[in-house]
Amino acid sequence: KLFFTDYGNAAKVERCDMDGMNRTWIVDSKIEQPTALALDLVNKYVYWVDIYLDSVEVVDYQGRKRHMIIKGRQVRHLCGLAVFENYLYTVNSDNLSILRVNRYNSTDAQSLARLANAKEIRVYQKRTQTAVRSHACEVDPYGMPGGCSHICLLSSNYKARTCRCRTGFILGSDGRSCK
After folding, report:
1. Block means of pLDDT (10 residues each) for the chain, length 179 residues?
2. pTM as predicted
3. Which homologous superfamily does the CATH classification assign to the domain defined by 132-178?
4. CATH 2.10.25.10 location in the chain
5. Extended beta strands in 7-66, E state
6. For residue 22, is it left (φ>0), alpha (ψ between -120 and 50) or beta?
7. CATH code for the domain defined by 2-125
8. Location of each CATH 2.120.10.30 domain in the chain
9. What are phi and psi of 62, to 5 degrees?
10. How far apart are alpha carbons 51 and 69 in whole angstroms?
11. Fewest beta carbons within 10 Å, which of 21, 55, 71, 125?
């Protein structure tokens, strides 16, 4: 799945398949300017920062179990969000500090360090990487991902795929080759 935010006419957090199909709103109320997103891949939760409401919230992949993690002055001007173990990590763009917030106990929040010009944060650790099983976009014997001549996008599950073409090309009637 692909998760993303939109705060145009109607602010929301959404998800869709990697090929853009099955677009679903998972949060569309009591939300103003959702920006940074982070996923808990194990428990299937989506965390987001709302820079207008000065808050960090969480919801499950289906839009249920929504609750506030932390709200107020302490989380103003946040950009970037990452989740690792019991903590959320974010960057305060006002004072350029890295903030760590316990996602189960919001009173446990602390500034860890200051950086010169940070706008994003990521956690790279082996335990945050999911195991990859065989999938529909694996390279075939001819070197083409999923049998697609240009771009292969996973669809509704890891066994389904959709072929797409680069700009200036159109997909052939076989659904795989680009012309």
Report:
1. 91 93 94 93 93 94 94 84 92 82 86 79 74 82 90 88 94 94
2. 0.82
3. Laminin (2.10.25.10)
4. 132-178
5. 12-16, 24-27, 34-40, 45-50, 55-60
6. left
7. 2.120.10.30
8. 2-125
9. -95, 0
10. 14
11. 125
